[in-house]
Amino acid sequence: MTEASPLSRYQLAELGALLAEPARAAILLALMDGTMRPAGELAKIAGVSAATASAHLKRLLDGGLLSLHEQGRHRYFRLANDDVAAWLEAMALPHASRAVPVAAIRDTALCRARTCYRHLAGQLGVALCEAWLERGWLLTQSEGICLLPHAADALVQAGLQATPALQLLHLRGRGCLDWTERRLHLGGPLGVAITGAMIDAGWLRRAHRNRALLPTPDGLRRLAELGVHIQT
Q1: DSSP H helical ranges for the chain
Q2: How far apart are CA 86 and CA 70, in angstroms?
Q3: Which of 11, 73, 103, 184, by CA, is between 20 and 30 Å from 97?
Q4: Does residue 4 sit within a domain?
């Protein structure tokens, strides 16, 4: 499933059938953090037997929602690509008016900042995208969203390593609709690389129990210098 290949009604029906099974939905949600997981771990998460999980994983692979990584005798599953993650995230939007207040009460950290597959989402992701578009650091083009050179220089001055920051200039991102904020955050390869660079720099830490990202005090200070502000 890609943006360049529009879905037919039959493909859409098949995708709906894939998500209609709670165990398969649980598997997909578990992989939304961008990790690779073995079948046994996914079976436990989905609450099904190993044989049942194997059948579900085959259907998800055949449906193009998962990819398989083999390392020796070990087999690991992950979401097929960023397009799948963006589609799954957007699927929550029709329920956002009911789900967001409850989610915010139960897990404010997840709404504040989290990974959408491998890029930054939530309040912090939306704030970053909007601030950098307003500053003219991000430019929307026909082939995607790009980071401009003066923005890369600002990131280096703020504390990101020079080589990763300059590599960002060769990547393209895209607007990804945030299911809790219902506004755009920065996805695609550019969004993934920026998020990874901020994690490496210690501006963000991964939560252990879910896909929340925890901004560090130093990270919040440096992001504020880059025009990115959220309520603390």
Answers
A1: 9-19, 22-30, 39-46, 50-62, 82-91, 96-106, 108-112, 122-135, 149-158, 162-167, 188-200, 217-225
A2: 25
A3: 11
A4: no
Is residue 185 within 8 A of residue 116, CB to CB? The reply is yes
Structure tokens at 96: 């956002």
Q: Are residues 203 and 126 both part of a single domain?
A: yes
pLDDT class of 105 with cuts at 50, 70, 90: very low
Q: How far apart are CA 213 and CA 7, in angstroms?
A: 32
- Domain assignment present for residue 1? The answer is no
Q: Which of 87, 77, 95 is nearest to 7 (CA)?
A: 87
Residue 144 in any domain: the answer is yes
> pLDDT tens digits, residue range 30-84?
888 778 899 999 999 999 999 999 999 999 999 899 999 998 888 999 999 877 8
Please state, in angstroms and rounded to a whole number, the distance separating the CA atoms of residues 187 and 200: 18
Given CA atoms 118, 192, 123, 15 in this order, what sign does their dihedral have?
Answer: negative
> Domain limits at 55?
9-80
Rounded Cα gap, residues 15 and 64, in angstroms: 9
Tokens 């502000």, residue located:
229
Cβ–Cβ < 8 Å for 48, 23: yes
Yes or no: say if 43 and 49 are a contact pair by the CB < 8 Å rule.
yes
Tokens 């050179």 identify what position? 149
